[in-house]
Design a protein that fits this description.
This protein has 191 residues and is mainly alpha-helical. The strands form 2 sheets. A two-stranded antiparallel sheet has the order 1-2.
């Protein structure tokens, strides 16, 4: 599926590459170490959607805005994230920023369906359920993404990841893939 996805989305890849190069000075790709199956670290790839010096922008924003700080502590996401560029907002809303993760699937770091890859700083949120996350490969899409995505709490995300790990079947994966098209098409829960 990853090879077919890379071939099918090649024109989209090319367009996004050109748009980022022209309108968003800086690197085209963003990569970050994430936790994979069994706790193995891997480099997860995305199209860059944030402004340069995003960490400094976030730090300043959280210092100045207590509501944003609370939202960040609860969800690790911001409704109005000042780090996201205009083009980046579009890429995130359409999930096009995640297309480079097809490379992660080819490398064996990820699968098409599974929990979203997490940072080591998010491990504590899984508590004694971390073994559920470690039991499966992280995915480009998953039960959380088709069940509310950013409109859910982090606790709900963990519960959905555990549910997926406990009940994963080929039939479930196919349902999630089909639901993903609808979620992406209508930009549900994307930020």
């Amino acid at each position: 599926m990853a090879i077919a996805g890379l071939v099918f989305f090649a024109p989209v890849f090319l367009c996004v590459l050109v748009l980022i190069a022209v309108f968003d000075n800086g690197p085209i790709f963003f990569s970050q170490l994430r936790l994979g199956q069994g706790g193995r670290l891997f480099r997860c790839y995305k199209f860059r959607t944030m402004v340069m010096d995003a960490d400094k922008v976030l730090e300043a924003h959280l210092k100045a805005d207590s509501a944003a700080r609370t939202e960040w502590q609860c969800t690790q996401k911001l409704t109005n994230d000042p780090r996201v560029s205009c083009l980046g907002a579009f890429l995130r809303k359409t999930s096009l920023d995640e297309l480079p993760q097809l490379w992660n699937v080819l490398r064996g770091d990820m699968s098409i369906v599974g929990p979203r890859p997490i940072l080591t700083s998010e491990m504590w949120r899984y508590g004694d359920k971390l073994s559920h996350y470690y039991a499966v490969r992280p995915g480009i899409t998953g039960l959380w993404q088709v069940s509310g995505r950013s409109d859910t709490t982090y606790e709900e995300r963990v519960a959905l990841d555990c549910q997926y790990a406990e009940t994963q079947t080929l039939r479930m994966d196919l349902k999630i893939i089909l639901r993903t098209f609808r979620v992406v098409l209508f930009c549900k829960g994307a930020r």
